[in-house]
Amino acid sequence: MPYTNEEGGLLNNFAREPKVYEAEPLTEGQKRTYILLGIVATALVAGLILVAFFVSKSS
After folding, report:
1. Contact (CB, 8 A) for 4 and 11
2. Distance set, CA 50 to CA 3, 12, 45, 56, 59 (Å)
3. What are the start-end ranges of the E strands in the chain?
């Protein structure tokens, strides 16, 4: 464990830093998948809002 001594004899114990790496760029297939999932999620939310609107109107 890496310890450091400060003034007055205090010891500080610092956590080990994780290894840093760069993310890989998305492939074309991954981009298409994310776009498709975004469209499906948007349609689902829009559908839920419409259902809530029509249910509140009928009451």
Report:
1. yes
2. 59, 57, 9, 10, 15
3. 3-5, 11-13
Q: What is the DSSP letter of 28?
A: H
Question: What are the structure tokens assigned to 56, written together?
Answer: 């509140």
Contact 4, 10 (CB under 8 A): no
Q: What contacts 16, CB < 8 A, 6 or more positions away? A: 2
Residue 33 has pLDDT above 80, yes or no: yes
Quote the tokens at residue 17: 């830093």
Q: Does pTM top 0.85 for this prediction?
A: no
Question: Looking at this protein, which amino acid is placed at residue 26?
Answer: L
Exposure string (b/e) for 12-36, b if CB count within 10 Å is 16 or more? eeeeeeeeeeeeeeeeeeeeeeeee
